Structure formats: structure tokens, C-alpha cells
Amino acid sequence: MPHNHHDGHCGHESNENDHDHDHGTSDLGPNDNLFPHIDRANVVALNATREGSVVVKPWDQRNNEESFLESDADDQLILRIPFTGSVRLRSLLLKTGPGDQTPMKVALFSNQPSMDFNDVSDKAPVQEFDIPQDRNVAEYSVKTAKFNNVSSLTLFFPASQGAETTRIYYVGLLGHWTERKTDPVITVYETQANLADHEKIQGTDGNFSTTQS
């Protein structure tokens, strides 16, 4: 849709890097967009009026305001995002608001797949960002070295900027994905067990029996 292309480029004119980053990618978005590698069926939102997956959208839907996530009982919100592999995170993309429904800030926790509101006060976030009131998609660059081997990312929004509820339209993630290699771990254990068995057999036949006799 030409209208969306136009909007996308206008929204990024002010940031040269972003514009270059998107250039020529059309509605597919940046080639390091992690959307295809998010386990969307298992995205969980706590204290939310809808399922968390509604805000994990493809790049071409980032400005769509028809579906959004809103906090329920108060203005706190937790979003847990699991990946289908291991991720080296580079940036968080957020579209929030409007106005006072914009979160004050977002706190990022890595590899805390079952984190809830009881846990957030006990654990220090890996990184956190203040969120300005802006209806455009904003990019928050993380300290990549601290998000190097991420299997799940938890976003905690502790408060709105004055409204009774917090609202989020879009959550996107940029970075590098690699397949989670589970098989080699199993193989290593099997190999260790087998080696122990062999040592025992060799010991009985060799040195072990001579020391006993």
C-alpha cells in the first residue's frame, strides 16, 4: 500500500540512520527484525485486557492502532516474550500512548520466562529506558553485550504518565537470531556416561585388577 510506504519514510526522515536502515526493505522491514523468531503463541501479558501477542506485530503493521494492549487493574504491565532460538538483541521498538497513557519507562529483563509482579521488585533490570510521549515508533538501543544469549525477554512498564491505564500499540525487536542447539548438550551427557562405563571396563581388565590382586 503506497500510503504506508509514504508514512514509513516520513516517520524516519528525522533520523538518518533509521531511514537508511529501512531503505529498500519496503514493508518487510529491517532484515534484523526478530518478529519471525518470536514464539508468539507463548507471549504472555500480565495485568492486561488482552493477550500480549496483539502488540507483537509484523513490521508493516507497526503504525496500526486498531489492536493494542492496555493495562487492566492499574497502570502496571508486564510483557514476556519468548524466542524460538538464541537472540543477540540490538534494539527495542515501541509505539505507546496516547498522551498520559504512555508508560513512564520500560525495564528489560533477559531469560526470566516466569517473571511476575512479585519478582520485579526483587530483581534489578538489565537495562531500562524513559519513554517520551510520542505517537511514532521509537527505537531504544540496548547494550548488546548484556543481551547476548537471550531466550526470552521480559518488559516491565511500572507506571503510566498520569493516566489510570498504560497503553501499548507495538513492540518490535531487532537483533541477531541463531538456532538453539539442544542436541549437542544431550550428546555430551551421553558421551560422558559412556566414557565412564568404558573406564570401568578398562580398569577391571587392566590396572584396576592388578592393584587389587
TrEMBL record:
SUPFAM superfamilies per record: Galactose-binding domain-like (SSF49785)
InterPro entries: Galactose-bd-like_sf, PITH1-like, PITH_dom, PITH_dom_sf
Pfam families: PITH (PF06201)
Domain PITH: 23-193
GO CC aspect terms: cytoplasm; nucleus
Highest taxon in the source lineage: Eukaryota
Region (Disordered): 1-34
Biased composition (Basic and acidic residues): 1-25
Family statement: Belongs to the PITHD1 family.
Identification of the protein by name: PITH domain-containing protein
Lineage of the organism: Eukaryota, Fungi, Dikarya, Basidiomycota, Agaricomycotina
